[in-house]
């Protein structure tokens, strides 16, 4: 089942495409304004992807931790507890799910520490993604290498557009190529979304 965060991202990207991506011309016929609109799409779409990942990770953390007091162990709950205790370098490390502390104050502290980590994220490249999803208990096999490479490329391209004036026309590519890159990322995010749900729901 698609998360509400992924549904929001798909809708937002469709709106940005409708507003900013012009199609139907030869690549050398697009105006300077149309190329600048495509660059705006790159920046705003990248921001939307970053917001999705951050919001989705926060929601997964909350869900995984909330199940613990109900006697429903989750991979995310156990993993976040380990992450928190190791980060603090204090407390007994729970080696199995049955040993995970379930006191409300403790779980609230774990969640607050994780949210603070998420809020400190700036940009969303491959390293940022791993730093957010690994504490949630995602196995390495659920972190798509192709997605990581795409996020790294998008981050580099976003930084170029954000920190210097770019003449996109020199790339000799149509504005729709900006959308194609984002669409490919959106497709792979569906698998990540499902993996986050599995980790937050199952032990």
TrEMBL record:
It comes from the Bacteria. This is RiboL-PSP-HEPN domain-containing protein. The lineage of its organism: Bacteria, Bacillati, Actinomycetota, Actinomycetes, Streptosporangiales. InterPro entries: HEPN_RiboL-PSP (IPR041519). Residues 37-196 form the RiboL-PSP-HEPN domain. Pfam families: HEPN_RiboL-PSP.
């Amino acid at each position: 089942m698609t998360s509400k965060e992924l549904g929001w991202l798909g809708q937002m990207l469709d709106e940005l495409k409708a507003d900013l991506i012009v199609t139907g011309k030869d690549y050398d016929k697009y105006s300077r304004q149309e190329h600048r609109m495509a660059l705006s799409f790159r920046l705003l779409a990248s921001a939307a992807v970053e917001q999705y990942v951050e919001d989705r990770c926060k929601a997964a953390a909350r869900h995984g931790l909330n199940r613990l007091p109900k006697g429903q162990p989750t991979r995310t709950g156990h993993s976040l507890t380990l992450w928190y205790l190791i980060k603090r370098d204090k407390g007994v490390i729970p080696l199995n799910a049955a040993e995970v502390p379930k006191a409300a104050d403790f779980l609230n502290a774990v969640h607050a520490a994780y949210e603070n980590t998420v809020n400190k994220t700036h940009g969303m490249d491959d390293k940022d993604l791993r730093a957010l999803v690994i504490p949630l208990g995602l196995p390495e096999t659920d972190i798509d290498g192709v997605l990581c490479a795409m996020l790294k490329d998008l981050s580099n391209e976003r930084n170029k557009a954000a920190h210097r004036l770019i003449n996109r026309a020199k790339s000799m590519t149509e504005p729709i190529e900006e959308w194609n890159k984002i669409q490919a990322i959106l497709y792979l995010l569906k698998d990540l979304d499902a993996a986050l749900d599995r980790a937050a729901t199952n032990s």
